[in-house]
């Protein structure tokens, strides 16, 4: 492609990026923040139909979880005798691209310990701030009603106004317990999500669906961390490849960021992601 055609294409892409943001994200550099739960009709009309994210403040202040789950002793007592799954990585970056000796660019998954007594699992999460391994408790697949069913009564089974707007209750309700070192690589979800923070803060970087090409989705061989004599090491799984985003929103070094700028120019040349912080009592719809 000659330079003139490249410039025309870049101009058209820039116009598309701007138009989509005006339609789905708005013209401000932040996500809409509502003071309280919307009516089902408002939520459906202004956000679900428009595929537009928003933060609903003061949405879960009535949940007992907001006061109870900040107490380690309460969690230990409520979960006494229960066993959970713990995901371990050396740096908190599960589902991130890693450099395996046999393949310089592969997708890493956490080492999973199943059947861990909850008290031990909670201790691993608490120790993650200073430990060589970062622990994250999560199992997906509706784990609040299975592994963490003893805590399910501390939160609503569904979000009434969202259930009415979407026309059905949630397919799965998951509980994630982690610390400040846990990060998630860029990815895309195929579901309507409601993300409620109970304790701490969760920071998001959001892009509209039309920006998927800017993330350079490629097929990568899958790897997973194994526990080898107390140390987490990558093991390459050659029979499985998965599509994943190449761009790292949190480059660990200036050298790596420079490499990414050279390899993935569309991400760095285009408009930056919308930043969003979700606090206790808030729900993020995306």
UniProtKB/TrEMBL annotation:
It comes from Acorus calamus. It holds the Pfam family Cupin_8. Belongs to the JARID1 histone demethylase family. Residues 135-286 form the JmjC domain. The lineage of its organism: Eukaryota, Viridiplantae, Streptophyta, Embryophyta, Tracheophyta. This is JmjC domain-containing protein. PANTHER family: BIFUNCTIONAL PEPTIDASE AND (3S)-LYSYL HYDROXYLASE JMJD7, HYPOXIA-INDUCIBLE FACTOR 1 ALPHA INHIBITOR-RELATED. It comes from the Eukaryota.
């Amino acid at each position: 492609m000659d330079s003139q055609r490249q410039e025309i294409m870049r101009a058209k892409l820039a116009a598309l990026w701007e138009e989509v943001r005006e339609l789905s994200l708005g013209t401000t550099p932040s996500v809409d923040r509502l003071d309280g739960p919307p009516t089902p009709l408002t939520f459906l009309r202004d956000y679900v139909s428009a595929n537009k994210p928003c933060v609903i403040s003061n949405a879960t202040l009535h949940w007992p979880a907001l006061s109870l789950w900040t107490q380690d002793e309460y969690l230990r007592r409520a979960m006494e005798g229960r066993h959970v799954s713990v995901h371990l990585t050396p740096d908190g970056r599960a589902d991130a691209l890693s450099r395996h000796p046999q393949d310089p660019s592969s997708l890493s998954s956490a080492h999973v310990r199943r059947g861990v007594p909850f008290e031990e699992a909670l201790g691993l999460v608490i120790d993650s701030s200073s430990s060589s391994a970062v622990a994250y408790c999560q199992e997906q697949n509706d784990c609040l009603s299975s592994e963490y069913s003893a805590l399910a009564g501390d939160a609503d089974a569904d979000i009434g106004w969202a259930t009415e707007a979407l026309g059905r209750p949630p397919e799965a309700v998951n509980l994630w317990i982690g610390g400040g070192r846990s990060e998630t690589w860029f990815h895309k979800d195929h579901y309507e999500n409601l993300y409620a923070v109970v304790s701490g803060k969760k920071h998001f970087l959001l892009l509209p669906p039309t920006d998927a090409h800017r993330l350079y989705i490629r097929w990568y061989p899958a790897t997973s961390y194994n526990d080898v004599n107390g140390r987490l090491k990558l093991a390459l799984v050659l029979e499985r490849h998965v599509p994943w985003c190449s761009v790292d929103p949190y480059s660990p070094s200036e050298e790596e960021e420079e490499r990414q700028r050279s390899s993935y120019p569309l991400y760095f040349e285009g408009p930056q992601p919308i930043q969003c912080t979700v606090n206790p009592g808030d729900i993020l719809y995306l």
